[in-house]
Amino acid sequence: MPVRPVTHFTWQVLRTVKRSKKPLTGRDLRLAPTRNTKDGSFLTALVDQGLLVAVTGSSDIPFEATFSLTEKGQHAAEYGEYEYDLKSKSAPVPAPAPPAPKATVVAKKKR
């Protein structure tokens, strides 16, 4: 499996969760108040990547949810990289939608 490095900010978030004795809220994990972290999408991305798991709360309000590390997240917090799965090439490709019928133009005869 290929290995993907984590960014410095992601590594800081993962280390913060690893050092904590209890699950932290998303608000506690917003270490840098930048425009990239103001909506909490970075937390949702970490959950989607499998590095964090939401203990309580939902992805609708990520700053109120509490998070803890997964096994993959613990490895990334320690070494700064994690293994990820490549997209399967044998996955079925959805069929394209049929083309819309073209409107026919009827020419009027001149008198």
From TrEMBL:
Residues 89-111 are annotated as: Disordered. Residues 102-111 have a biased composition (Low complexity). This is Transcriptional regulator.
